[in-house]
Amino acid sequence: MKKLKLLIVLFLLSFSSYSQNTISIGESEIFHSEILNEDRKLEIYLPKSYGKSDKIYPVLYLLDSFYNFSHCVGSVEYLFLNQLIPEMIIVGIRNTRRNRDLTPYSPEIDKKQRERLGLTGGADKFIDFLDKELIPHIEQTYRAAPYRIIVGHSLGGLFNVYTFLKKPELFNSYITISPSLWYSNKLISEEFENVFSDSIEPNRNFYLTLANENSGSMRGNVLKLSGEFENYINTHKEANLRFKYEPMPEESHGSIGLPSIYFGLRFIFTPVKYKIPKTKEEITLQGGPDKVIEKSINFFEQQSKIYGFELTNEYSLKDLGYTFLKIEEYKKYAIEVFKLRTKDHPESFDAYSDLASAYEELGEWKKAKYNYEQALRLIKKTGDPEWEFYQLDLDNLEKKIKEKKKE
Asked: Which of 26, 79, 130, 337: disulfide with 84, CB 3.0–4.6 Å?
């Protein structure tokens, strides 16, 4: 009897080991820095499409990765799933001596702050590490586009501000979360006009947040920084600098990280949203359907050149196709747009489903059936649990075809 029980336990254990799969959101690597004279642990997230394409991707460099990596990956995947941002690589940088690396040299900080912080003043060396070692390593190892975002929280936010003032061209976009601007530094206290002798390189984004922090000089300095940005933008239109200050008084210094990354990424990629004409009158004013299609395609080609990586036109074409489908005399253009979408995005089950829907609307059921079948095949390959909706579309069409044959 004891042997039987042991066999049952062993069977259950073996079954359990075979039925479990590890869910991974990234991988880690050790990178040696000659500049910092130490090894640094990196946490790397690659987009789900990375192994299936030859595309290049923007890179998000994440400070304080120990605290922020998992929720940052979740936010990026969720925003991409909802068509709000492009896919991107995330490089999380683990700390060794955080206070040293993220603070600029400052003889102005008082004795009490110096004792609390310990070793400080290594920000210039850390900028060199990013610029001369880490970024080249990432861009040589991975299919990284020359579009870089940096995310910094607290002392990391202080580092973001310092880096933007010291070397603004190093990153295209800065997400700066409750920066520790109580930390004194001459460069940060200067007015922008005195810091930037020439204009900032164009097409930079700076997103700034602040939690419910009212004590000390931090809040006042954040508001001063916000004012400096606004003044500079108003007097230097040629810089094409986008800035947004978003106070989050309901968040604490600890909890503000997640919403800041979420809304910061949305802010950065807001300009890539193309405004689709919604009425016949608007389409006519833009030169008619052919001209509207051409403008939509050109918009994303131009934006891709600005950002340095391919920005998808898939969802713009979807909206445009359904706009045409609602206008009787423009329905044929819906087919044209949806066909163009399947050509540009051959792995998109949604693209084939929309094309099938348009063919069904026009009574071309044979073509509709073929495209519904393609959509169902593609979605089943992904494991998406909503495949049943695509099956129902196909089943309902087949019922229509059978009923038509009976007539």
From this structure: 79
- Looking up residue 239, the CATH number of its domain turns out to be 3.40.50.1820
Does residue 216 or residue 204 have the better pLDDT?
Answer: 204
Q: Are residues 70 and 185 located together in one domain of the fold?
A: yes
373 is written with which tokens? 């079948």
Q: Is the pLDDT of residue 98 over 90?
A: no
Is the pLDDT reported for residue 189 higher than 80? no
The residues that bridge with 28 in the sheet, in sequence order, are 43
What contacts 45, CB < 8 A, 6 or more positions away? 25, 26, 69, 73, 76, 89, 90, 92
Task: End-to-end CA distance of the chain: give it in Å, rounded.
Answer: 69
2 pLDDT band, cuts 50/70/90, is very low
| Residue with tokens 């995330």, as numbered in its chain | 90
Q: Which residue's structure tokens are 């004012």?
A: 227
CATH number, position 348? 1.25.40.10
Cβ neighbours of residue 280 closer than 8 Å, sequence gap 6 or more: 327, 330
Which residues constitute the domain of residue 116? 27-272
pLDDT (tens digit per residue) in 286-337: 999 999 999 999 999 998 988 899 988 888 999 999 999 999 999 999 999 9
3-state SS record for 110-153? CHHHHHHHCCCCCHHHHHHHHHHHHHHHHHHHCCEEEEEEEEEE
Q: In 3D, which of 84, 82, 23, 91 has the Cα closest to residue 57?
A: 91
Contact 259, 221 (CB under 8 A): no
* Residue 268 amino acid letter: I
Torsion angle of C-alpha atoms 61, 63, 65, 69, degrees rounded to 10: -50
Q: Is 324 exposed, middle or buried (0-12, 13-18, 19+ CB in 10 A)?
A: buried
Q: pLDDT-derived band of residue 20, with 50, 70 and 90 as boundaries? A: low
Of 40-49, 152-161, 194-203, 265-274, give the lowest mean pLDDT range.
Answer: 194-203
Structural tokens at position 22? 């590890």
Average pLDDT, the chain: 88
Q: How far is Cα 126 from Cα 34, in angstroms, rounded to an integer?
A: 11
Domain termination residue (choose one: 272, 292, 318): 272
Reported as a pLDDT band with limits 50, 70 and 90, residue 210 is very high
H helices of 131-250, in order, are 135-141, 155-166, 186-189, 192-195, 218-235
